[in-house]
Design a protein that fits this description.
Layout lengths: L15 H19 L2 H23 L5 H17 L5 H16 L1
Length: about 100
């Protein structure tokens, strides 16, 4: 799986970054509360990267979603290059991240 769908965050408005962050955090929290062990692992892993990136975006007072998506791409790519996860887990993390972007 690739990051080719990263640009699918379409028709974004300047105020949508805060809404996107809240919606993503809410979704990940629900998975942590109600998911099975594998879903919990994948969501928690993604949540860790997302929390760091979202926090950075908020500190920098960014207003668009696209820079957050690009920072997530960089963060996950570095982690995957360091072989932090198996290929199967990487695919599941990417699948969840892409789902959150188009959600």
């Amino acid at each position: 799986m690739t990051f080719s769908n990263q640009k699918q965050v379409a028709n974004q408005q300047p105020h949508e970054l805060a809404s996107f962050i809240q919606r993503t955090e809410r979704y990940l929290d629900q998975v942590v509360e109600h998911g099975n062990d594998q879903q919990l692992f994948i969501a928690s892993y993604l949540q860790g990267h997302f929390a760091v990136v979202a926090g950075h975006c908020q500190v920098k007072q960014m207003i668009l979603i696209e820079p957050l998506v690009e920072l997530m791409h960089t963060s996950l790519s570095k982690a995957f290059e360091n072989k932090e996860l198996s290929l199967e887990d990487q695919e599941q993390v990417l699948r969840l991240w892409l789902t959150l972007q188009v959600g």
